[in-house]
Every structure is written in structure tokens, then in C-alpha cells.
Amino acid sequence: MGSLVSLVSDVLIVLLCSLAILGLLFRQMNISVPVDPLEWQISQDTANSIVAWLANTIGATESVLRVPATGHDKRLFFKVVFCLYMLSALGRLVSGLTVAYAGLCLFCLYMLAEISRSISACLS
To answer: What is the Rg, in whole angstroms, of the alpha carbon atoms belonging to the chain?
Structure first.
């Protein structure tokens, strides 16, 4: 029970910190985000394209991972085993939530760098 409470609190902390970072970024870029989820409406075509992209991505991933799973390509099989072992070792060292939060922070910094680059290109 204690680990469940710890997991829930970790998830809430990561979500709150992520929302705070995104809020600061949006405030810096003068982007207004509607708070009411009912205002977040997308068209049927957009929803269809998102679902189609997701289905294609999952299908492509499944077909790519089927090759090493069958063992026909030994070199690829051992590369996948090595990568999974390294991810397992990383998971033993740090929490998955920590890695996800660090990835979100790096993504936000990347987006900020891209936006500042495009703004400086427009100004010059």
C-alpha cells in the first residue's frame, strides 16, 4: 500500500512540475491556452488523422520489432537485448518518473530554442 501511495504522489509531483514549466513557457511566449476542456474542440478530419497516425505508428513498430523477436537476424536480436539490458540498468538506478520528467524538461528546452531561433530569424 505504501508503494502505491508513493507512486501516486510521484505522479502528482511530476504532473504539477510539468504543468508549471509549461505554464511558464506559455506565459513567456504570450500563448493563451483555454482552461475549459469543452473549448478544446478538434475537427473530425483532425481526429481521424491522429488516429490513423497512431495506428500506423503502432503497426510499424510491431512489424519492426517482429524481426528481432523471431531471432532470424542474430545481430539485431543481440542489439535489442543489449538495449533492453541497458534500459533495465538505467531503471534500477533512477526512477522512471525521473527519466520522464527529465525528458519533458529537455523537450521544453528544445521547443524554446526552436521558437527563439525562429523569432530571431524573423527579426533579422
So the answer is: 20
Backbone angles phi, psi at 105, to 5 degrees: -65, -45
Cell of 115: 521558437
- Give the other-Cβ count within 10 Å of 97's Cβ: 14
Measured CA distances, 4 to 1, 9, 10, 55, 118 (Å):
5, 9, 10, 32, 44
Calculate the alpha carbon distances from 85 to 74, 78, 88, 90 in Å: 16, 10, 5, 9
pTM greater than 0.85: no
Domain membership of residue 54 as a residue range? 41-67
> Cell digits for 54?
497512431
Residues 55 and 85 in one domain: no
Q: How far apart are CA 98 and CA 7, in angstroms?
A: 12
pLDDT digits (tens, 9 = 90+) for 57-109: 888 888 877 877 777 778 888 888 888 888 778 777 777 777 777 778 888 88
